[in-house]
Design goal:
alpha/beta, TIM Barrel, 2 domains, 5-stranded antiparallel β-sheet
Length: about 500
C-alpha cells in the first residue's frame, strides 16, 4: 500500500493497453468505461495531453466515459466541449460527489489532488464539526450543480460517488425528481443491463430462479427474442459445465449448505423435509432455516407466497416443487405482488407448477391427467431422456402476458417444450453438483441424492384455463387419492369349462 506504481514487462502499462486487450479478446461482449479528468490527470504534463490520452482510450474501444469528481458545473461542461472538439463522440457521464463531511472531503481531495473552490471552503470551514450541517450543504450544492448539468442538454445521465453513504445521494435524487419510491418491474424477470440484450423481452419460465445461468447459456446468441418466443425448434443453449453448475449461484458456504440441507440424510423423506422447510420458512430438524435450494438461491418470491399452503402440503408427500406461479386474471400492472410493466395496464398468468417426483407418483399422475385434457398441458421427463408430453406440436405456451395502453400484448414468459429438455439437463445435474457433492463418496446421504437424481422425474404442468380457479392442486390431490386408494383389481374372468368327449356321449344318450 502506498508504493509507487512500476511498469511490468508484457503487462498493461496504460489503460489504453487494457482496452485494446479486452476488445481483441472479447470483441464487443463487454461495454468498456474509462475515466476522464475534467481538470486533467494530476500526473499528466498538461490538460491537453491528458485529453489526447483520453481519446486514445476511446479510439481503442471504450464505449463511454465517467469523469472524476468536480465542484463546479462549468468545469465539467468545458471538459465535455473540449472532448467533442478533438473528436470524442461517446457519452460522457459526470461523476457527482455530494459533500457529506469535512474529514471525508479532506481525504478525498488529498487522494484526487483536486482543489476545493474557495467559495465552498468559506461555507464549510465554520461548520466543519457539524456533519449534519455539512451534509445538508453538500446536498444543496450537488442538486444545484446537477440541475445545471441536466438542463445543459450535454449530459446523458449522472454517476454518483457514494462511498457507501447513500443518504445524501438519495436526497439529491429526490430533489431532482429522479428517485422512484415505488420502482416497477419492467418485466416479471430482472432485465439484463447488457446492451446486446436490451430488446429481449421473452424467456422460458424454467430459469426464473436461475437468471445468471440462463444469461450464461445464451450469451452467444446473436439475437434475443422480442415480442414472441417464436419457433424454437433448435435453440442453441450453451453447455453448462460442472464448474458453473456448482459455483454459478452458490452464495452460501459448504458448511452453511450442510446446515440447511442436512449434515446427514437418512431417507428420501429427509429430502422432502428440506423442501418443506424452505417453502414454510420454518427451521429444519436441526434448527436451521433453509434459505435456498439448488434451484432457488433466494427465499420464496412474493407471488409464490400466495401458494405457500398448497406447496407445503404437496412437498411433504414428495412432490418437490422448484418453480410455480398462481393464475392471475387481469390484475393492475401496479399490483405490488404480481404487477409489472408500465402503469395503466393489466397482467395475466396461467397457473404453473414444476416439480421432481417419483416414478410411482408419475404413473398415477399420468392416469389422472387424462381427465384434465386439454385444460392441463404436461411435460414429464427423467434424467435418461424418457419423455412424455401432450404438447405434441412442441410450440411455446405463453404463461405470462400483459396488456398496456398503446402497446401490443407483451408475452414475457413461456413454457417451451424444446427448451424444457435443455433445462432438464441442468435441473437434474444440480442434484449432484450442488447437493450430492456436499457428502463423501458412497456415503448414505450421497446415495440418497443420487437415487433421486437417477429415478425421479421432472414434471411441469400448465393450467390453461386462467379465469377459473387453479386446478393443478386438484390434479395432485387426485394423484394422491389414486395412490392411497387404488381401484380394486377386477377378478380375471375364467373361460367356461369345455366338456370332455365322454361327457358329451353321455349327454347324447340321455337325450
Amino acid at each position: 500500500m502506498g508504493a509507487d506504481w512500476e511498469e511490468e514487462e508484457a503487462g498493461f502499462n496504460y489503460a489504453t493497453d487494457l482496452v485494446k486487450h479486452i476488445r481483441s479478446e472479447f470483441d464487443d461482449y463487454f461495454d468498456i468505461c474509462v475515466a476522464g479528468y475534467p481538470t486533467g490527470h494530476p500526473e499528466a504534463e498538461s490538460y491537453d495531453e491528458d485529453l489526447r490520452h483520453l481519446k486514445e482510450k476511446v479510439d481503442a474501444g471504450a464505449d463511454f466515459i465517467i469523469s472524476q469528481l468536480f465542484f463546479r458545473a462549468d468545469t465539467f461542461l468545458k471538459f465535455v466541449r473540449d472532448c467533442r472538439a478533438i473528436g470524442i463522440t461517446c457519452p460522457i457521464l459526470p461523476g457527482i460527489f455530494p459533500i457529506q463531511g469535512y474529514q471525508s472531503l479532506r481525504q478525498l481531495v488529498k487522494l484526487s489532488k483536486l482543489e476545493v473552490p474557495e467559495e465552498i471552503m468559506r461555507v464549510i470551514e465554520p461548520i466543519k464539526d457539524n456533519d449534519a450541517a455539512i451534509r445538508n450543504y453538500g446536498i444543496e450544492q450537488a442538486v444545484g450543480m446537477c440541475r445545471v448539468l441536466l438542463e445543459s442538454g450535454e449530459v446523458p445521465g449522472l454517476h454518483f460517488y457514494t462511498l457507501n453513504r447513500e443518504v445524501a445521494t438519495m436526497e439529491v435524487l429526490r430533489q431532482l425528481g429522479l428517485w422512484i419510491e415505488d420502482p416497477r418491474r419492467t418485466l416479471p424477470w430482472a432485465v439484463s443491463a447488457h446492451p446486446k440484450r436490451k430488446v429481449e423481452d421473452v424467456r422460458p419460465i424454467f430459469w426464473a430462479s436461475r437468471p445468471k445461468s440462463y444469461i450464461y447459456r445464451t450469451q452467444d446468441w446473436d439475437d434475443f427474442p422480442n415480442g414472441r418466443w417464436g419457433n424454437s425448434s433448435s435453440p442453441a443453449f450453451g453447455e453448462l459445465n460442472d464448474y458453473y453448475l456448482f459455483y454459478l449461484k452458490s452464495k452460501s458456504s459448504k458448511d452453511t449448505l450442510l446446515k440447511m440441507w442436512g449434515e446427514e440424510l437418512t431417507s428420501e423423506q429427509s429430502v422432502y423435509e428440506v423442501f418443506t422447510s424452505y417453502i414454510t420458512a420454518q427451521p429444519n430438524v436441526a434448527g436451521h432455516k433453509v434459505m435456498c435450494l439448488p434451484w432457488n438461491d433466494d427465499p420464496l418470491a412474493p407471488e409464490t407466497n400466495l401458494l405457500k399452503d398448497e406447496l407445503d402440503k404437496v412437498n411433504r408427500r414428495g412432490v418437490l416443487t422448484i418453480n410455480s406461479q398462481p393464475s392471475i386474471n387481469g390484475k393492475p400492472s401496479s399490483d405490488p405482488i404480481v404487477g409489472w410493466g408500465p402503469p395503466g395496464g393489466y397482467v395475466f398468468q396461467k397457473a404453473y407448477l414444476e416439480f421432481f417426483t417419483s416414478s410411482e407418483n408419475v404413473t398415477a399422475l399420468l392416469k389422472v391427467l387424462k381427465k384434465y385434457e386439454p385444460r392441463v398441458n404436461y411435460h414429464i421427463v427423467n434424467v435418461h431422456g424418457q419423455n412424455t408430453t401432450n404438447a405434441h406440436d412442441m410450440q411455446p405456451n405463453a404463461v405470462t402476458w400483459g396488456i398496456f395502453p398503446g402497446r401490443e400484448i407483451v408475452q414475457p414468459t413461456v413454457v417451451d417444450p424444446v427448451s424444457f429438455l435443455y433445462w432438464k439437463d441442468e435441473a437434474f445435474a444440480l442434484w449432484i453438483e450442488q447437493w450430492a457433492k456436499l457428502y463423501e463418496d458412497e456415503s448414505p446421504s450421497r446415495m440418497i441424492i443420487k437415487y433421486i437424481h437417477d429415478n425421479y422425474f421432472l414434471v411441469n404442468l400448465v393450467d390453461n384455463d386462467f379465469p377459473l380457479d387453479n386446478c393443478l392442486w386438484q390434479v395432485i390431490d387426485d394423484m394422491f387419492e389414486l395412490l392411497d386408494n387404488p381401484p380394486e383389481e377386477q377378478p380375471t374372468e375364467q373361460p367356461a369349462e369345455q366338456p370332455t368327449e365322454e361327457q358329451s356321449d353321455k349327454e347324447q344318450r340321455a337325450k
